[in-house]
Amino acid sequence: MTEPEGDHDRVDATPPFDRNGLEVLDRETSLRLLASAVLGRIGVTDRALPVILPVNFVLDGDQVLVRTSVGTKLLAAAAGAVVAFEVDDFDPMDHAGWSVTITGPAREVTDPADLERIRHLPLPHWTPAAGHVIAIDPAIVSGRRLVPGHAVGRGS
Q: What is the pTM of this model?
């Protein structure tokens, strides 16, 4: 038996959903949404305990850049620690939103040419002492979106 012409090339356009009914976002969509945000959260380890800190950031290519001062974030980056970075947006009226998480190694940007280029990016900072830049490489990118009206496994 032969397949009807074209069926073997058909791609299912329905986005994948996880077991909780959230749309699973691909890397490209996740990074696009991440780039639209201005405030994120960086998760680092401080004295063997997890710490989550709010940060301003900019997406530069596919790496996240954060301006910071000397402290927990910079120490983690200087050690090449693997960190988590998260951004999200939620509309409580429409019951819609999304979340993107990046996990990967952090490093302090020290190359003078890179720092000069970064100086011209829209990378805000909260304090005047924020003279250091951390780059987070996205080894793992994970995104989910809450789609209005899409529910899986809800009881009545």
A: 0.80
Q: Take residue 32 and report the two structure tokens written for it.
A: 């696009």
One DSSP character per residue, 41-73 reads EEEEEETTEEEEEEEE-EEETTEEEEEE-SSHH
The Cα 9–Cα 45 span in angstroms is 47
**Contact in structure between 65 and 135 (CB atoms under 8 Å):** yes
Domains contained in the chain, CATH given: 21-145 (2.30.110.10)
Decide: 44 and 76 in contact? Cβ < 8 Å.
yes
User: What is the distance of C-alpha 140 from the center of its chain?
Assistant: 9
Q: Within 10 A of 122 (CB to CB), how many other CB atoms are there? A: 7
Q: Which amino acid is at 36?
A: S
DSSP letter for each residue of 121-146: S----SSTT--EEEEE--SEEEEEEE
Give per-residue pLDDT as tens, 78-127.
Answer: 788 899 999 999 888 888 899 999 999 999 999 999 999 998 898 877 77
Q: How far apart are CA 131 and CA 40, in angstroms?
A: 19
